[in-house]
Structure formats: structure tokens, C-alpha cells
Amino acid sequence: MQPYFYTEPLSLLGNVSVVNITYTSYQVIFLPLVALVILFGLRWFLRHTLAGSLIVAVTEDREAATAIGINARKVFFLTFVIGTSLASLGGALASPTTSVLPGMGAQMIVLSFAVAATAGLGQIGGAAITALMIGLGRSAAVFFMPELEVVVPYLIMVIVLLFRPEGLFGKTTARKI
Fold this sequence. Notes:
two-stranded antiparallel ribbon
């Protein structure tokens, strides 16, 4: 199958020059704004809605949540729907800046694991900061040592997890056995 490349959204918004380097407004303005809206919207949803509270409760302690009458299966389904919707939105937003072809997200899955492990599981704000840190690290590697570009996210992850096994923003909690 041939990859598809759709450039209309890029051309509609124009270009922006930052330090004599030309970027598309889509990449410099639109994508960061959408990411911030989704970040703050998701945080608000989890903290201020009943469905968000149920998701947090089931995530923290499934057995206790089930014991007080929360249907964990429905909560897992809702979480799956929200996650797949956000993944679909991410793919749609990435399509103007890259070719669309089957399997294009495989590399992102591995990077997402590195971000989640480095930030600490369940830390949405921390994941955003860690993703920015890993992205900047990869960009610096492309500029200074292109051969290390693939390794940099995992080096960052290993260094963080050596000093903070629960992740940068993770909390140390007692485990139930």
C-alpha cells in the first residue's frame, strides 16, 4: 500500500519564522494549543466529573471500588473509549505532518511507553512534561549526534528510573499483597 500525504491543513494556516527557521503555523501554534486544551480538559474531567472520579477510583483500587458498588467493567470500557478517541485524534492531527500508512503508530507506542514509565504511571501532567523533555532530547540528538536519536528516549528513561524508580512524578505507595 502506498503512503498518503495530505497537506491542505498545513497550507491553510501559513508559516511562522522562529529564529530564522520557518515552521508551519500548524506545528508551532495549532498543535501545541490542541495539546494544552486536551491536557487541561482531561485533568478537569478526571477531577471534576462523576465519570472521572469513578475512573480514578477504579484505577487506584479496583477491589475497593467494586466493593462499594462501582461497575469496574463499565469504567474500563469508558476508559478504553476515551483512550481510543484520543489516540484517533492524535493520528488525525499527525497526518498532515507525516505520511499516513499502516503501522505508522508502532514507533509511537514504544515512545509512549517510555514517556509513561519516565513520568510515573497515572501522571497526566507529568506525562506532558516528560513527553516534552523526551521530544527535546530527541531533537537535540538529531542536531548534535543523529546516530543517537533512537537511543535518547531510553537513555532518559533509564537515568530517571535509576534515581526515581516510581518515575519523575510518581508517588511511592504501599502495595497490597
